[in-house]
Write a structure and sequence with these properties.
With about 170 residues, the protein is α+β, with helices and mostly antiparallel strands. The protein folds into two domains: about 10-45; about 50-165, no CATH class. It contains six helices and six strands. The protein has helices spanning about 60-75, 80-95, 105-115, 120-130, 135-150, 160-165; strands spanning about 10-20, 25-30, 35-45, 50, 55-60, 100-105. A three-stranded antiparallel beta sheet has the order 1-2-3, with no helix packed on it. Helix 1 packs across helix 4 and helix 4 (about 120-130) runs antiparallel to helix 5. The longest helix is centred in the middle third of the chain and has 17 residues, at about 80-95. It is elongated, with a radius of gyration of 23 Å.
């Protein structure tokens, strides 16, 4: 760390205390050259680990999610702004729920639940990538499911739970 005033790195910590309201440690530092003082906060850096199908982990990257969503939403009613919003919403949800680890299929389910109510075409495209349909009947099932959901009354809530279990194919 460098002094924000003179940019050299001989710093002395003069005080260190808990800042529970920010879940952080607050430190007063004094530059040994210009003698100016400033405060730093040490916080936990929250990263979510994504467990991939091959068993390896990678850091959750919002950018990657946006990329996948953009591909599914191209030429649909969903704008790029909406894509960014969805990705931000999902990221915030995970952080709010203090998720530390999520599997690729779980992440896919969350995204699909968001897309399902917005645009069925984007939903199916995304489902194709995430579910890796191996035969056409699975794909048809998914299409029929989203169709009947969009036709039915009170589609948003009660259907979601039912559909979720229905779509949980042995593939995932
Ligand atoms: Zn300084």
């Amino acid at each position: 760390m460098k002094c924000p005033f003179c940019h050299q790195n001989e710093l002395k910590v003069t005080d260190s205390r808990d800042a529970p309201e920010m879940n952080a440690i607050r430190r007063r530092r004094e530059c040994q050259r210009c003698l100016r003082r400033f405060t730093t906060f040490e916080t936990v850096e929250l990263t979510i680990q994504v467990l991939k199908r091959d068993g390896s982990y990678e850091d959750f990257q919002k950018q990657k999610l946006i990329h996948g969503l953009n591909a599914a939403c191209r030429h649909t009613t969903i704008s790029h702004e909406q894509v960014v919003h969805i990705a931000e919403q999902i990221t915030m949800d995970c952080m709010d729920r203090q998720v530390r680890e999520i599997t690729t299929p779980e992440l896919g389910e969350i995204v699909m639940n968001q897309l399902k109510n917005l645009d069925p075409v984007a939903y199916i495209r995304f489902a194709c990538v995430y579910r890796r349909f191996t035969d056409i009947s699975e794909l048809m099932d998914a299409i029929q499911a989203v169709q009947s959901e969009n036709d039915g009354p009170g589609k948003k809530n009660n259907a979601k739970v039912k559909k979720h279990s229905h779509l949980k194919s042995p593939l995932v």
